Design the sequence.
């Protein structure tokens, strides 16, 4: 019976062959204008919905836990994109505020990203992909408490195994740590006594998401996921470093973005690249800044909230604009 159930679950999860998973480094995203806040997993299905960070909590279990973000998040960004957090943290950081409410177990919150993204343009449920070729995962992080690095298999499979997903522990480290784990290192928790078993290698073949779950006694715990990639990826040894071990820093800048109607002007910079991104993190306008003051037309954009990013040598500026 166990093998029949497992086979059925595997068959129900349509998988995609693995491409190249490019190691995501928050410090590089912050510094390099050509880097994207989106994680390029190599498993996208052409919809470009893979690799965006999201958060979850214990509210469905009667818990009251939340995540405190380091910068104010507009409601539009809270629902669809947490990009401002990445630029602030040089990673993906926050404070886990754990409050069990009436939950009978330790409270929890988590962050993660889907490896394929939504199934289709009309079906926003996450698809599964075959990540076997990654060999495992590398992660660089800081955290006040242990983090469970979990392999998400989608709601149907996760609920079937009572959310006993294959996991590797990331030990607490306030100064920064790097962990490299093979798929074989991922194990279901010892308390799980269900009939459907999943080892790491099996889970990797139908991987839906990569999750970082913080579950502990009530309290506040700071964390930062600074880099994540395949097992042989270029995750740095510490947070704030490039893959080559170079400390990434930004110089003081007097850059300003000034919106007048549908014209965006820039001051305080002589040479840089400007990008305007929508709430999904997609670049909707861009241009090169060649003089001390330049303009960028946004006449083609709909009304809404956008992020402006100006990047160049020794500078990285970001700001929110509202087009009416």
Sequence:
């Amino acid at each position: 019976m166990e093998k029949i159930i497992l086979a059925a679950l595997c068959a129900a999860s349509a998988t995609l062959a693995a491409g190249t998973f490019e190691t995501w480094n928050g410090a590089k995203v912050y510094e390099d204008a050509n880097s994207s806040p989106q994680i390029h997993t190599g498993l996208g299905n052409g919809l470009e919905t893979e690799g965006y960070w999201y958060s979850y909590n214990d509210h469905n279990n009667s818990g009251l836990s939340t995540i405190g973000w380091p910068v104010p998040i507009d409601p539009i960004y809270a629902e669809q994109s947490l990009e401002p957090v990445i630029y602030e943290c040089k990673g993906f950081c926050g404070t886990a505020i754990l409050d069990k409410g009436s939950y009978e177990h330790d409270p929890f919150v988590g962050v993660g990203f889907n490896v394929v993204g939504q199934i289709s343009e009309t079906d926003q449920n996450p698809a599964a992909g075959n990540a076997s070729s990654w060999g495992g995962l590398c992660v660089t992080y800081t955290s006040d408490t242990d983090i469970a690095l979990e392999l998400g298999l989608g709601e149907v499979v996760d609920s079937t195994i009572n959310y006993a997903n294959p996991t590797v522990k990331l030990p607490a480290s306030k100064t920064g740590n790097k962990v490299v784990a093979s798929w074989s290192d991922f194990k279901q928790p010892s308390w799980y006594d269900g009939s459907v078993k999943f080892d790491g290698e099996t889970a990797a073949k139908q991987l839906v998401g990569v999750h970082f779950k913080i579950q502990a006694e009530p309290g506040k715990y700071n964390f930062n996921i600074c880099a994540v990639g395949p097992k042989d990826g270029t995750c740095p040894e510490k947070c704030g470093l490039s893959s080559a071990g170079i400390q990434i820093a930004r110089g003081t800048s007097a850059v300003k973005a000034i919106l007048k109607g549908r014209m965006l002007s820039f001051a305080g910079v002589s040479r840089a690249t400007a990008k305007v991104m929508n709430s999904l993190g997609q670049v909707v306008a861009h241009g090169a800044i060649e003089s001390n003051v330049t303009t960028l037309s946004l006449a083609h954009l709909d009304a809404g909230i956008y992020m402006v990013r100006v990047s160049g040598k020794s500078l990285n500026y970001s700001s929110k604009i509202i087009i009416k």
